[in-house]
Every structure is written in C-alpha cells, then in structure tokens.
Amino acid sequence: MLLIECPHCGPRDETEFHYGGQAGVAYPAGEVSDEEWAAYVFLRDNPKGWFRERWFHVHGCRTWFAVERHTVTHEIRTS
Amino acid sequence: MSHPDFLWRNPDPEPAYDVVIAGGGGHGLATAYYLARNHGITNVAVLEKGWLAGGNMARNTTIIRSNYLWDESAALYEHSLELWEGLSEELDYDLRFSQRGVLNLAHSLSDVREGRRRVNANRLNGVDAEWLDAEEVKKFCPVINVSDRARHPVMGATLQRRGGIAKHDHVAWALARKADAYGIDLIQGCEVTGFEITKNRVTAVQTSRGRIAAGKVALAAAGHTSVLAERAGVRLPLQSHPLQALVSELLEPVLDCVVMSNAVHVYVSQAHKGELVMGAGIDAYTSYGQRGGVHVIEAQMAAALELFPIFSRVRVLRTWAGIVDVSPDASPVIGPTPVEGLYVNAGWGTGGFKATPGSGWVYAHTLAHDRPHPLAEPFGLERFTTGALIDEHGAAAVAH
Ligand SMILES: Cc1cc2nc3c(=O)[nH]c(=O)nc-3n(C[C@H](O)[C@H](O)[C@H](O)COP(=O)(O)OP(=O)(O)OC[C@H]3O[C@@H](n4cnc5c(N)ncnc54)[C@H](O)[C@@H]3O)c2cc1C
Ligand SMILES: [Zn+2]
C-alpha cells in the first residue's frame, strides 16, 4: 500500500485516496480539431519512471493535489 | 534425471527478417504461428526481453469466454473461442481446455438488467448465453451462497456453457513449438530498445543483441506497449496498471465451473491440480512494478468469502501481479500506426488470454495483407478520433 502525503493532512494510507491520473492536462483552448480533442480526452503519458499524477483525499480533507511517483519503485516525492 | 526434450531451438538473431514481433507472450507467439500457418510467412523473429511467455501469459487466471456485449467484440472473441475449440488437436498438445461454463453474477437490479441484455445481445450474435435465476445458479454451482441476506446477494447470473479455462503454459509451449517447427526464430533475452525509421517507415529495430532489420515490426508487448511505441514517436491511448491474482493451497475438487463477479471484482475457478485461482481488480495507479497493494487482495478475499463461505479456512499460497495495458473503452487496439510498417496489437488489458488464438489470427492477417482483418477493423486506433468506441466496460470491466 502506498503512503501518500496529503498537503493538508500529511502522510496517509492509499486507501483514503482516489487516483486522478496524469497531472497538468489542460483543457484545450479555442477551436480544436478532432485529433486534438481525441488527444485531450484519451491520450495520457504512460512512462516507465517518474510520473506527475493527481490524487484526491476522498476520505479525508477532500483536497486534490499532485505528486511525483516512480512507476517502477512506487517511490513518491512531493513537488 | 536428464532434461526433457526442448520444444524449440534457442537461436541467435539473424541480421534481418521479413517480420519482427516485439514481445514473446501468448499474442506474439500466436501471431508468429498464424503468420506461418495461414500466410506462409516464416522469415519471422519473435524478440522477447525475458523468457518466452513469462509476462502476463504466465500470470493470468486463464478464463476463456466470448459473451461480450457489442457486435464487434462478440465477433472477435467468438472467433477466438471457436479456435480454442480445435486448438489442442491442431497444435497436437493437450491445452487442458475445459469448457466448464462461466457464470457472471448479478448482485443488483442494474446488474440483472445488464446481464439479461447481454444474454439477448449474445444470442443475436450466435454466442451461447443463458440467464439463470438465483435458484438455478445454486443448482449449477452449489457452493455459492445465494442467501438474500448475503452482503452481495446473488440475484441471477449469465451462463456461457462453452466458456472455461485452459492451461496457459501449455498454450505458450504448444504455439512456440509449432512456430519453431515452421522455422520461425524465437529469440529470448533480446529486448527491443528502439527503432530505425526512415521517411516515416520503420526499417529496423535496435535490441540488446544488436540491430535487426525488419520489413515489418509488430508490437505485442502487452503492458509495455506504450514504452515501445513512444520510442517510435507514437502515443497510444493506454495506461499500464498492476493486476493481481492469487492461488490457494491444493484442495479436493469443490468448484467445477468459473464464477465471476464484476461488481465485487472477484473471479474464481479451481485449476486442474486443485488450487483455487482467484483474480482481483486492477490497482488504481499506473505501474510497471509487477506488484500491487495488499489491500486490493484483502478486499477481493472479503468479497470472495461472502460468496463462498465454504472457503473461509482455505489458505493463500501466493499472490502476484502482471502489468496490463488498459484502453479507454476496455477494448483492444489492433492495426497500423502512423509509422509505416509498424503495427500495434495491445490494450487487451485484463482480458487478453482468452483472445490468444483470435488475436494472433487477425494480427497475422493484418501484417500479411497490410490492412486490417475484417474482424480487427473496428479496433483501429482511429476509433478514438471518430468516436466509434467499443465500450465493453460492462462485459469486460475489470473482470475477464
Ligand atoms: C493477474 C492477471 C489475470 C488475468 N486473467 C485473465 C483471464 O482470466 N482471462 C483473460 O482472458 N485474460 C486475463 N489476463 C490478461 C492476459 O493475461 C493478457 O491480456 C495477455 O496475456 C496479454 O497478451 P500476451 O500474452 O502477449 O502478454 P505477455 O505475456 O505479457 O507478453 C508480452 C511480452 O512482451 C515482452 N516485452 C515487453 N517489452 C519488450 C521489449 N522492449 N522487447 C522485447 N520484449 C518485450 C514481455 O517480457 C512479455 O513477455 C490476466 C492478466 C493478469 C495480469
Ligand atoms: Zn487530506
């Protein structure tokens, strides 16, 4: 089980959180092509290594926040 | 004691092949086999970074069925199931393919509606399907607790009698032996590390054992497909997650069918040797670590014990995880990529074992003819742009 550091509550068990996927995926601005829209909706990075991702402290303070996690070692560093 | 005969050679790579398949799991091996058998293409190498079929092929719970909701999926998975029905004979190897019936339990009114709808859709597509009420479930599988006071009451189930399980190692070994006999090189300990691409056409792969020129390159790397595609500059709509399973100690025969519950993320069968094989849902986060959280196993066990109180004192022997390639609509991605000569077959996620022969069949055809096999056509990458998704979350969900 991961130990995830909520910026408000400190380190808590993974079971208190909901996973939010890749962080920093911005809503596309202005007119977008079908390809750009498809990329926004469906394409996410899937790296083997460090990954910036969002977590939701659903059973705690209900804050959304981002961390960096290594997808092989599962090590987490707050950023 | 001497080593039994080897089932395939262990060749070094040649400098060039007509087709290079990246990934020696079930799908890579089946693709190689059908390239030779159906299309006479034998100048083929399967490159495997570890040992043959040591990835998800070695880690799955071997459930086979074809009762998917939509026409496109029913056609593809049913084609695969029909191949399974003749595969032991064709490969001349006992795959322990056992059509013992697969139950998908319904625990709520919406499960019931979804299940009955799927039974009707399956029948229209010529896929065998039956709806059982709770009493009939009890008759079919007496060890399930169908009490309406249970935490997860059983309100009925779909039944596919032609569904079942097979022995995954035998499947891999049988396919490898046949592919090898056709002269195909199965090269282990050979990791694909990059691609040579000239004028948007792939011409070679770089590997841990040197450069290998290739007429065509077929990705078949399951959970690692995104990593490979990225090296060719291709982004795929896939996320890699751990998927865990476990086995119990060996028991006398007690469960003679496959029981699945999407709602509580449990699926159970009893292997030929006697151990209970149980699968869980995916871990929430993306990972390549081949391990998951113990709380996922715990939740799965809790649900399993509600369904099967008789298993309460059974001990777990071991748990493990594989890395599964999950697509947005729980359907695979099969076909060409934006790079000419580079093909993808991935996104089978939590449920690709059952598709092993069918996937190999349509992928081989796609490679041989440079255009998708009719059964694979709806599963191309472009569906994410056109919006023609094949949403199998209901039938596939996290279960198989
Ligand atoms: C716990 C678990 C339970 C499952 N249960 C079921 C089930 O009951 N029914 C069902 O239908 N499906 C099930 N699945 C899914 C099924 O196992 C997969 O969909 C299927 O095995 C994927 O195809 P494959 O066999 O080719 O994958 P794999 O066996 O994973 O083959 C991919 C291969 O590619 C290799 N590779 C990766 N990167 C490289 C590289 N760079 N160079 C060379 N080689 C590389 C890997 O080492 C691996 O051997 C389950 C999966 C898991 C993990
Ligand atoms: Zn918090």
From TrEMBL, chain A:
Matching entries from Pfam families are given as:
SoxD
Q: Where does the source fall among the domains of life?
A: Bacteria
Q: Name one GO molecular function term.
A: sarcosine oxidase activity
Biological process according to GO = tetrahydrofolate metabolic process
Q: Which InterPro entries match?
A: SoxD, SoxD_sf
- Mind telling me what this protein is named? Sarcosine oxidase subunit delta family protein
UniProtKB/TrEMBL annotation, chain B:
GO MF annotation list: nucleotide binding; sarcosine oxidase activity
Superkingdom, natural source:
Bacteria
Q: A GO CC term?
A: cytoplasm
Against InterPro entries, the record matches this protein to: FAD-dep_OxRdtase, FAD/NAD-bd_sf, Rhodanese-like_dom, SoxB
Q: What's the catalysed reaction? A: sarcosine + O2 + H2O = formaldehyde + glycine + H2O2; sarcosine + (6S)-5,6,7,8-tetrahydrofolate + O2 = (6R)-5,10-methylene-5,6,7,8-tetrahydrofolate + glycine + H2O2
Pfam families attached here? DAO (PF01266)
Q: Which UniProt keyword terms apply here?
A: Cytoplasm, FAD, Flavoprotein, FMN, Nucleotide-binding, Oxidoreductase
The answer, when asked if Ribonucleoprotein is one of the entry's keywords, is: no
Enzyme class at the top of the EC tree:
oxidoreductase
Names of required cofactors? FAD; FMN
**Domain spans labelled Rhodanese:** 19-63
* Gene Ontology BP, a term: tetrahydrofolate metabolic process
Q: What is its EC number?
A: 1.5.3.24
Locations listed in the record: Cytoplasm
Give the family, as the similarity comment puts it: Belongs to the SoxB family.
- Name assigned to this protein: Sarcosine oxidase subunit beta
Q: Which organism is it from?
A: Nonomuraea terrae
